[in-house]
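quick one before i forget lol
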Amino acid sequence: MGKADHVQSLERGIAVIRSFDAEHASQTLSDVAKRTGLTRATARRLLLTLTTLGYASSDGRSFTLTPSVLDLGYAYLSSLNIQQIAQPFLEALNEEVRESSSISVLDGADVLYVARIPTSRIMTIALGIGTRLPAHCTSMGRVLLAELPADKVTELVGPTIEAHTEFTITDPEELERELAEIRRQGWALVDQELEIGLRSIAAPLRDSAGRAIAAINLSTHAGRTDVEEIHRTFLPALLRTAERLNDALKKR
């Protein structure tokens, strides 16, 4: 893409939207300018534009996003159509193993949940469609990162890898070796690297060209399911479901 084709105002508007998160649900003009690196004047124009369009609201001092922002994500999910296609497969998998199953896509350095069938809550945060988690220490993130060139992984994850638990892989070379093994075997198992007590296993979902467009996983609590049981029971069920879902996705 040439420089003339780059719309800077759109880039800045997206940056403003993404500056809001769970820890910054309400922000002043100064907060947004600081978090985005924009001038106060630019941040003000963008916030007022988002407010006029209905994507943000203001009490006169602080700004918050409105539910209309979800329309942007739903437009993507509708165009991808994964959620609708995957739902019966997730339900069948959930029925077979009695554990939570999810589908996500890679979005920058995060995985973005696009479908989910929960059983019991096994994390301290509530998971649902639209939830973001770091790709480097999640099973779905790992299988999707394994599809990328090493330099792209470094670009996304960064030279310093954040530790979420004592088990998180933080050495770039060790992560590279782990991704190579995932690429070879076709699935990823992550054991308590995101949160203590959480174990998950994932496999890629591919389009007709063989490209990994999403990932499917099963997650369980370490207190009730050991790694051996995951290999013996979860992995075969997950791979069967991924294969069937891949066939369905190729026909869409």
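fyi Strands lie at 26-28, 56-58, 62-65, 100-107, 110-117, 132-134, 188-191, 198-206, 212-221.
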